[in-house]
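WARN no homologs supplied; continuing
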Amino acid sequence: MIKNKLSFFFETLKTLLYICLMEFKEAKNKFVQTWGALGSQWGINKTMAQIHALLMVSHEPVSMEDIMEELQISRGNASMNLRALMDWGIVYKEYKAGERREFFTAEKDLDELAVKISRERSKREIKPALKVLKEVSSIQSDNTEAEKHFVDQTTKLYDFVLKADNVLDKITEYKDNWLAKLVVKIMK
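OK structure emitted
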């Protein structure tokens, strides 16, 4: 009688543990898949975003082999996207004593992550757009209405994008500025 109750108890416990683990795996997979889909809307490829998501929610560094297995991607795809994430400064390579494999971890501080992504996007997207806007708004016009309008609009757009980029720079510099840190702390 007691043996049957204990057996039932352990079987129930094992089933509950399996359900909890299954829910975790499903939740983690859903997060990784959703982050990947969002990434493509943010201008990065789906796999790069999925790798970042996986590393961001992993409690310890993950090997490339584990990333490949978890996401069902090739070594080349994993390697290329890990390199890109390291170039962005949001993924780091870690070494474990006695291990030949490389391990990777993501930036866990969400404020720092936002700053790094903002700076990188400014460098890759906003600065090149500013260069083009400055160039096209500086053309010599023959004083036709169309040319005047073109120069006027592209100059206004350049000024607006430059102001937005400067605001973004100021916001991302807050970590170096004690006054801005205080303002952010008060806002939280």
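The chain has two domains: 2-106, 110-187.
OK
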